[in-house]
Amino acid sequence: MRTRRPGVADHAAAELLRVADGFLLAIDVERGASLRTLEAYGADLRRYLDFLERKGLAHVGQVDRRVVLAFLQACEADGLGPRSRARTLSSVRGFHRWACEAGLAGDDPTDDLRGPRLPRSLPRALRVEDIERLIVALDPAHRLFLRDRAILELMYSCGLRASELCNLPLIAIDFGEAWVRVRGKGDKERIVPVGGPALAAVEAWRDGLRPQLVGQRAPEELIVNARGTALSRMGLWKILRRAAVRCGLEDRISPHVLRHCFATHLLQGGADLRAVQELLGHADVRTTQIYTKLDQQHLLRLHRECHPRARASG
Q: Is residue 238 among the annotated active site residues?
């Protein structure tokens, strides 16, 4: 947070900076927030504290509801879209809530403050045949074929987030019981079954190419790059992109699309919504319910394509 130039303004905002630093420390220690989450909160709060400073406010207790509303209006005027404004409001709300809980302010000016209405966009999902095309598109002659196949199979079989795949320890998979222990958002653990093809692909990678890449090093991550060190999220994206280009899906694939496919295909196969929630690691079932809408779209499409009266033009 302390990236401002020295001077009177810094002195005036010293209390607000201390409160912001205390809040970021709290979500880091108490919630186990990821580095990306902390960076996002920090960026939002820098914008907010700059606004308060321009308004001549130096103490968190001086902020009232009108000030927060004026800040949100300023964000919109600066060109921030609804999602960015909603995320910014979430950061500001957390900042004031923490200040109240810490006894640094009496009232929370964001209490019951509603954010911008967001369009509920449905995730993209590929057909099962498209997933098969993607996996088959991997080049067996490529030096890292075993690794890339293990990545695709594991992400689709288990619905892993990109960060979960990149940080997955070698010891997280129980090959005898066919499950993987995943550490997700908020440092929460979940157990996810691993399908036969994924298990075989990971085993081939673990026993074949991986030892050659890591050599004398002993990285704890299951998936490594060509240098034998942990694979980055960007590296993962490039692997998916390479396979997608080979099968004509380059405009429709990303690490998160595979996670969407995992959830959607489970629901289409008759899986219970609560079970899918647990497998995805969603804290709130409402986050998972978006996939039921996508599944309904699938059923509507089948009805239009297959029912004789649906095809009738009148």
A: no
